[in-house]
Request: fold
Amino acid sequence: MDRSTQRILVVNPNSNEAVTRGIDAALAPLRFSDGPQIECTTLAEGPFGIESQADYEGVALPLARLVATDNRASAFVIACYSDPGLHVCREATDRPVLGIAECGVLTALSRGERFGVIAILDGSIRRHLRALRQATLTGRLAGERALGMSVAETVSGEATLDRMTAVGAALRDEDGADVVVMGCAGMAAHRTRLQERLGIPVIDPTQAAVTMALGAVALAA
Amino acid sequence: MDRSTQRILVVNPNSNEAVTRGIDAALAPLRFSDGPQIECTTLAEGPFGIESQADYEGVALPLARLVATDNRASAFVIACYSDPGLHVCREATDRPVLGIAECGVLTALSRGERFGVIAILDGSIRRHLRALRQATLTGRLAGERALGMSVAETVSGEATLDRMTAVGAALRDEDGADVVVMGCAGMAAHRTRLQERLGIPVIDPTQAAVTMALGAVALAA
Amino acid sequence: MDRSTQRILVVNPNSNEAVTRGIDAALAPLRFSDGPQIECTTLAEGPFGIESQADYEGVALPLARLVATDNRASAFVIACYSDPGLHVCREATDRPVLGIAECGVLTALSRGERFGVIAILDGSIRRHLRALRQATLTGRLAGERALGMSVAETVSGEATLDRMTAVGAALRDEDGADVVVMGCAGMAAHRTRLQERLGIPVIDPTQAAVTMALGAVALAA
Amino acid sequence: MDRSTQRILVVNPNSNEAVTRGIDAALAPLRFSDGPQIECTTLAEGPFGIESQADYEGVALPLARLVATDNRASAFVIACYSDPGLHVCREATDRPVLGIAECGVLTALSRGERFGVIAILDGSIRRHLRALRQATLTGRLAGERALGMSVAETVSGEATLDRMTAVGAALRDEDGADVVVMGCAGMAAHRTRLQERLGIPVIDPTQAAVTMALGAVALAA
Amino acid sequence: MDRSTQRILVVNPNSNEAVTRGIDAALAPLRFSDGPQIECTTLAEGPFGIESQADYEGVALPLARLVATDNRASAFVIACYSDPGLHVCREATDRPVLGIAECGVLTALSRGERFGVIAILDGSIRRHLRALRQATLTGRLAGERALGMSVAETVSGEATLDRMTAVGAALRDEDGADVVVMGCAGMAAHRTRLQERLGIPVIDPTQAAVTMALGAVALAA
Amino acid sequence: MDRSTQRILVVNPNSNEAVTRGIDAALAPLRFSDGPQIECTTLAEGPFGIESQADYEGVALPLARLVATDNRASAFVIACYSDPGLHVCREATDRPVLGIAECGVLTALSRGERFGVIAILDGSIRRHLRALRQATLTGRLAGERALGMSVAETVSGEATLDRMTAVGAALRDEDGADVVVMGCAGMAAHRTRLQERLGIPVIDPTQAAVTMALGAVALAA
Reply:
């Protein structure tokens, strides 16, 4: 069966095109010649980065409008680790809408006993924990720790990988995680090397969510 | 990138070849020309159906041996809704091993607020609940209800679909489920029509697990 | 000590002035001659009623702007039972921001063992439950049941009180609640009579939140 | 409306009059000229301090008798952080009976994500935790830490404030609390300065309970 | 080894000697010629039945005094299904003090997946649930249902057994219990026949607690 | 009543006869002249030690066969701290089957507020935690810590006791345990001295399970 006319729309809710390009590159392994198209787009109305609660709230309705007015996609992925607008987007369409934080954690739960999360900023951890509590997914949370770097800094650079390794090792050794979720859409380029260094599975949440979207789309009648 | 030399091995732990063939057919939409091979096999040592705790225990080590000695697969899926042998298989290999009950529930959690499960036999519900409690995934369980039919009866037949519809409607209307998981590897043929009838997402757990395996395999370096 | 120069600002996030007037009237018993001023305002940008997730999302940033730019209030109360914008408002000011759903439930927990909630619309219950799960306050939830009426209908009318009594009795007798929370800012006029009819405490959430705001303001140095 | 004929009776279950006077002083900001009277009394039968389980049990029935025979109060507050006799007092009267531990924690939950508790004695922590578990309010508990001082020592003195600051800082920085509850009726004099030093809300539980009693009384028909 | 100089003291906190005699008779199977003595006593200060919270509170300190001044027993069992005085008795002695509710439930958890409780009075259920929540033992509670009879009525009579059977069957069939705890010290005479009728294990809590006391005593050095 | 024709069969699922002899010796205090026989046996098919998930799975069906074909025992105890085969053995017989991990923890819950577990190997902790989560018994878990010794090493030797004391003290002082469970069937010889050194109750799980079996057997009609 040829699924290549189907489309998964991955929306980066911040307006940083470099992040969108990084996401796009990270999804290459999930593109198959007769599989669904995976298209990445930048939310025009988004802030340059989603670092505050106001940033998070501000993109909810623009995302919902995008979802409601798009008539080409079979499924949507919101590519920000806070899952902004997830519930309002689901209200706006009957098509599947997946959040990368939710899918990242769900995927981690299929690969280990207890998961750790690498956040970028300390200030995001409370927001992430609220989402986990709401989803009743804290039962196997080992811990969440922040890099203490800006989003921009994390996209590239060996120093970033070193810092991620140190934080990941703390999650593994002090908190007892046996699987780690990268708590940001912009970390994917580091996933393979981080996994090699830590010796336990490392989940990129956008890849996790697009995988689940791929299934939802391919399996639709 | 061509992933077509990679292989996902889906193991039906019961020895009922008809079930294996049904699983194989249900996975067609997840086969892409340049994607991983999805191969279904029947566990030679399996009982004809896994209905008792003894059936469940009896396939654990045969599954682990299969996993340990296979040198062609990049990931494994155990295609029985009790996830027999899941932990011992994970001990036997570093490659991902996914259980369909676990993946079915995790996928449901990405599609709705509260999930219901359609079991075949009443006697299986306690076993399923033990697994959910162990995974700390009961927080959004709406309920589990049994068809009260044999595994053989559920594979085909309009009467089965009618019975599944009635049970699914009870999960939706009385228990508050807004997504339903089919609690058996052999129900996939009914998924699309059941979903149409119920008007809420219906998850086939084998399809869910193979989707997650597809991601794990495709994303490996 | 004279606290009467202090001000509590109660914001009705919908633009229905009749609801604001009802809230204002319900707060009369909490106004003391030398106590904080309790001022009720209508959010200009609000929809006529907050019934959908989009309505809920749409008022978050307007509420945050109101909170951030107001320089007269010592504390804020968001008077909608979905607590829209609660977290972004807290980010926008160091002054206390209280949500009526949160305070209604917390107050109920001081008055009974298990609480029931009377919602207006079935469709709001999932949103309310998400908030309760996030706050880890489901442990003593007896149940939530909807009136199946519009917000407008609930503000007045004997038929409304009868319907609330029936739903409250079901929460008490079938679900085991010994305290009931009115799940809407616009039901306050019915509280006393409903409590008399049910014979168990009935909590108006706006009154509960303003009480807690009164304490926070009066106790500030 | 003039509420000044109504009375809230705050009972200090220990027989230390200095503690009662401290409580009385701490409640001054909640007294309004036309608001309910707030009267503090010392339980004649109480021990000098409530430090053991026997102290705690010993005051339950005397409190219940006081509640049952008082015919002037509209609500009662039990001013000991172990909430002795709470359930038997509720059985003894239909008027609201509030415990300061319960109300202190509930109020903290309206002001922060995760709360810490400053106990006086290590030996009280287990008793406090039993009450929190019973109330299903442990989900957002950051931790409880003891001063390791006697009740008498904590009532006054700069050394006490320094010790409270150190313990509060540990709750904030090591345990992740963003709101702190003072786990004793006799610490109120330190609240404002402790809050300034810690930079996060500090809740005096007696003030919290009397606030909630004020609402319950003022709102009674 | 001869343990017959050791003594387990079972205290009936109510002053109904007929209940004490019934308890004594029910413990006969746990008396071995060279095993610990099992002695039953009636608390002189106890009320005729423990039906209210005041009854429950009133026996705590008398029980603690009994425990503290007894110098012959190696372990104590408090034989009332509300476990009155459990924590204060544990403070009063280093010897084991066991509560029958706690031990009844713990024993049930070793015999089934989900337990039901047969209470005598509706009014006791909240008190029992508080204890279960405090002990974090609600995870596998199927339900608790009351006979709606007086304690006196339950001690004997075929009508009682019939009523217990009906309630037990509801716990089994409607609530999903596969083991039942008798929620009163005075029901032991019915245990065997009730178990036969229900076809699932029925736990008498006094027998369960004395069994655990027997182990604690016999195993002491 | 003479119960001495009744038999409790304690099965050591590993084939190490020295462990079986140690278990047998530890049960001497539970043997009464007119009480049930307590017989210890070694599972012929067992591995020399149960250290891996494969070891654990491998004994399940042999245990179930032993249980199903034995016609002399009134109750069975599976004497390995992972409770292998517990559910399949329960399916194989209507007689009580008790697991020592389950009974050790349940007994600890009757003796303290929060329990700690001393494991032998780090690798076993995840397996133990899965069982605790499944049983919903993690609510009062203080922590589990491993000795980092082989099973053989732990059976005897002063060095073992010293190591157990250090680990037990960490559970007590750092994790807050006030009762400790020995997480292995082969540690019983150290129980009394470990308890003396730690000053809190120490539970040997085999003794705990046989005590509960003793009750179940003695109380059968």
